[in-house]
Amino acid sequence: MGVETLHPLVSVIDLSKAHPMKHVRHIFGFYAIFLKEVKCGDLLYGRQRYDYQEGTLVCLAPGQVIGIEDNGEVYQPKGWALVFHPDLIRGTSLGRNIREYSFFSYEVNEALHLSEREREMVVGCFLKIRQELEHAIDRHSKRLIAINIEMLLDYCLRFYERQFITRSNVNHDILARFERLLDDYFAGDRAQREGLP
After folding, report:
1. What does the pLDDT read at residue 195?
2. pLDDT tens sequence across 66-83
3. Partners of residue 11 on adjacent β-strands
4. Model confidence at 177, in pLDDT bands (50, 70, 90)?
5. What is the CATH number of the domain that holds 90?
């Protein structure tokens, strides 16, 4: 990507400062959280399309495959990325709890859509982690970095739950209306006159 690395196991990257790149599919050997500021094409996550737009958060775990089929175009990424190796969190609270963050799973094929306030909070967490990375590595570094990553992931968990609770309520309302329509249809004589809906 052409950006400076401050720690061997973790980086916070301002993607606008990265070199322009071609579309490619990657197998990730680390955890990655991308705050995408520009849609650069249709992401393939494993074998499925991944629903994302500008201003969304994409979370990946080691061993996952994601990317965009190479169409020969070069693009300038924009946004932020946090990447960290599993060794960073080994023996930490985050290492023990990483499985609780279900948004790292292939089962979640939808990016986290952030409000402006949520986006500011996420960027604030990235900057706090980067600030710790700019400090000379000492015996407290690993713990402080892991705690700040865990705080970011806890915010993401809150935001994901908000997104899916909101969507669940909308879907529940649609389902309830549909059931009322079916009940009304079958309660009258329309089913006998017109057949099944």
Report:
1. 78
2. 766 777 778 778 889 999
3. 83
4. low
5. 2.60.120
Give a yes or no: residue 36 inside a domain: yes
Per the domain annotation, does 196 fall within a domain?
no
- In the chain, the number of structural domains is 1
- What's the predicted TM-score (pTM) here? 0.73
Q: What is the pLDDT of residue 2?
A: 65
| 63 in Cβ contact with 15 (< 8 Å) | no
